[in-house]
Amino acid sequence: MSNAHETEKKPRVVFITGGNRGIGLAIARAFAHEGDLAIVSYRSGVAPEGLVGVQMDVTDQASVDRAFTEIESQYGPVDVLVANAGITKDGLSMRMSESDFQDVVNTNLTGAFRSAQKAIGPMMKKRAGRVIFIGSVVGMMGSAGQVNYAATKSGLIGMARAFAREYGSRGLTFNVIAPGFVETDMTATLNDALREKYIGQIPLGRFCSAEEIASVVQFIASPEASYITGALIPVDGGMGMGH
Fold first, then answer.
1. Candidates 75, 149, 167, 227; catalytic one
2. What stretch of H or E contains 38?
3. How many separate helices (H) and strands (E) can be counted in the chain?
4. Is residue 35 included in any domain, yes or no?
5. Residue 67 falls within a domain, yes or no?
6. Residue 217 lies in a domain
């Protein structure tokens, strides 16, 4: 038993896709602060200061393969994967182009699958691993103008639960964290009237901080959460309750 406990205390290799800004960056910094090796993926530019970065495009299988090979060769296999990379291409469904639908699915849903699939092999060999998908309250409630985005975030729940059933016997867990409205660069651009409208739908009466999302992700990745799998964990101030 002592060996297993000591293993938990070692710095883990934590890979956060799309971790160069917003929620992903807050998650990466939280893990790094606790002494884990936080690696973030980014499509262009450079890695955030103080974090290890790897260039990766989740819509490109070859790019995903290269990134995981690079991580495993330099730092070892991924212990915790946080599938966070995502985009929006909003528009009313009647006018939404097929490319706008497919682009969002390819990034948010298929991209998460590509990343998880690469992480699972080494995790199975170790009989340990955590995969955490970043979903959204929109995945349960729906949202006008976000048919593509809502479909992908809902799809992550089914994906996580299928993975959980396939690999639970190997000690792997798969869970979905579903944020509501979060204080990010994106929500900072909302005008006051829209902001008040959205806050009016949230029982706690405020937006969430990215750090609050990061704290829940850290808990799900911790030894204390070893018996939680296939779960949908809302962090939305009560906005989606009942869904």
1. 149
2. strand 37-42
3. 10, 7
4. yes
5. yes
6. yes
149 is catalytic: yes
CATH number at residue 133: 3.40.50.720
pTM (two decimals): 0.93
Task: Give the closest residue to 133 by CA, choosing from 86, 170, 169, 185.
Answer: 86
The per-residue pLDDT for range 31-85, each reduced to its tens digit, is: 999 999 999 999 888 888 889 999 999 999 999 999 999 999 999 999 999 999 9
List the Cα angle 47/84/73 in 5-degree steps.
Answer: 55
Tokens of 8: 């938990």
Q: Residues 132, 160: contact at Cβ < 8 Å?
A: no
Domain extent at residue 98: 11-235
Question: Are residues 181 and 212 in contact, defined by beta-carbon separation less than 8 angstroms?
Answer: no
Give the number of domains in the chain.
1
Alpha helices in 105-146 (DSSP H): 111-126, 138-141
Q: pLDDT, tens digit, for every residue of 102-114? A: 999 999 999 999 9
Q: State phi, psi for 85 to the nearest 5 degrees.
A: -55, 130
Q: Is 154 strand, coil or helix?
A: helix
Residue 2 belongs to some domain of the structure: no
End-to-end CA distance of the chain: 40
* Tokens coding 97: 């182009």
Closest by Cα among 105, 88, 99 to 186 = 88
Q: Please state, in angstroms and rounded to a whole number, the distance separating the CA atoms of residues 238 and 81.
A: 26
